[in-house]
Amino acid sequence: MSHHKHLTPIEREKIFLLHSQNKTLSYIAKIIHRDKSTVSREIARNGYNGAYSPSAAHTKYLERRTNCKPKLKLSNPEIFKYVRDKFLELKWSPEQICGRLKLEKSDLYVSYTTIYRAIYSGKFDTDKERASNGNRGAIRKLRHRGKSRHTKGYIEKRGKIPISNNISDRPQEANNRTRIGDQEADTVIGKSGGACLVTLVDRKSRFLISSKAKKKDSVSVKDTMISCLTGQPCHSITPDRGMEFAKHAEISVALEKVKFYFPLPHHPWQRGTNENTNGLLREYFPKSYDLNDVAEFFRLAA
After folding, report:
1. Where would I find the H helices in the chain?
2. Tell me, what's the pLDDT at 172?
3. What are the E-state strand segments in 85-228?
4. Of 279, 246, 272, which is closest to residue 260 (Cα–Cα)?
5. Do the beta carbons of residue 191 and residue 217 sit within 8 Å?
6. Is the pTM of this model over 0.70?
7. pLDDT attached to residue 71
8. Range of the domain at 93
9. How far is CA 182 from CA 142, 202, 216, 268, in A?
10. What are the C-alpha distances in Å from 285 to residues 129, 179, 278, 280?
11. Does residue 290 contact residue 193 with C-beta atoms inside 8 Å?
């Protein structure tokens, strides 16, 4: 049998010739080294009134191949310009661009995964981007700067903290964002060894409460979280798995037994609201920034 997945134009010519000579399907299949069902399906699909045209059959095949390929929405010049301008000029993330289009109920909607694919494939690269960022091009415009992520099988070498609850145990009210008070927690660091920002984002409202901790250690982060959340609606907390949250049990007691639900290792999208908010903060507080200069306590709507 032939190893070709699809019939070739030459094979279609042979089918036409043998079929016009009233040869059986089995005979035709044997001659072209194809299965009988392949020949039968080809004639039934592309024949008309008992006749079979190889050129018409191949044209139909090419049309079907074209139609089965997904239409790339970024091939629309208007969508491409909108996304490119927001990404390169305004420094919006793919998620922000997608969210804005949804909010505007625009006919120009495109998914953020499509935008990411375009960025990584170099569709937004310019001569300027290539000159300043080399082969990375516009990828370096992403908030994570196109850095590599841990691959499957990566072994965590940092210290591990005992967790109280897995994210799979988190209540549906928190998962579905149906109530105020389900927080996602993380930290934003500045200069090495200095202060950090503790960030707490409500899953439903996306409201951010952030406060400075003297250091990125478990004691400082614990005290800062208790200060931030005392008197605030708080049903659950989904933190990062870093050592700075090692004293989560003490925080839970101080906040009237609020439960912590920990995501899986290297699954930052399970705290996606906080991750995206921290990305926004990074635009104003880069890693080189001395967070000791930040006011002790502030709140932002995000």
Report:
1. 9-20, 25-32, 36-46, 54-68, 77-84, 94-103, 112-120, 127-133, 172-175, 218-229, 248-254, 272-282
2. 94
3. 182-189, 196-202, 207-213
4. 246
5. no
6. no
7. 52
8. 73-141
9. 28, 6, 23, 17
10. 23, 30, 10, 9
11. no
Burial of 236: CB neighbours in 10 Å, binned 0-12, 13-18, 19+: buried
pLDDT at 19: 85
Quote the CA–CA distance of 175 and 163 in Å, as a whole number: 19
Q: Please give the structure tokens belonging to residue 119.
A: 């960025």
Phi-psi category of residue 69: left, alpha or beta, with phi > 0 → left and psi -120 to 50 → alpha: beta
Q: How far apart are CA 33 and CA 11, in angstroms?
A: 9
- Please give the radius of gyration of the chain, using alpha carbons only, rounded to the nearest integer: 29
Q: What is the DSSP letter of 125?
A: -
229 and 265, same structural domain?
Answer: yes
CATH code for the domain of 293? 3.30.420.10
Q: Write down which residue in 28, 52, 68 finishes a domain.
A: 68
Mean pLDDT per 10-residue run, the chain (302 residues)? Answer: 70 87 91 92 80 81 66 78 86 82 74 86 71 56 54 54 90 94 94 86 92 92 95 94 94 95 85 86 84 68 47
Distance CA 165, CA 163 (A): 6
State the total domains in the chain.
3
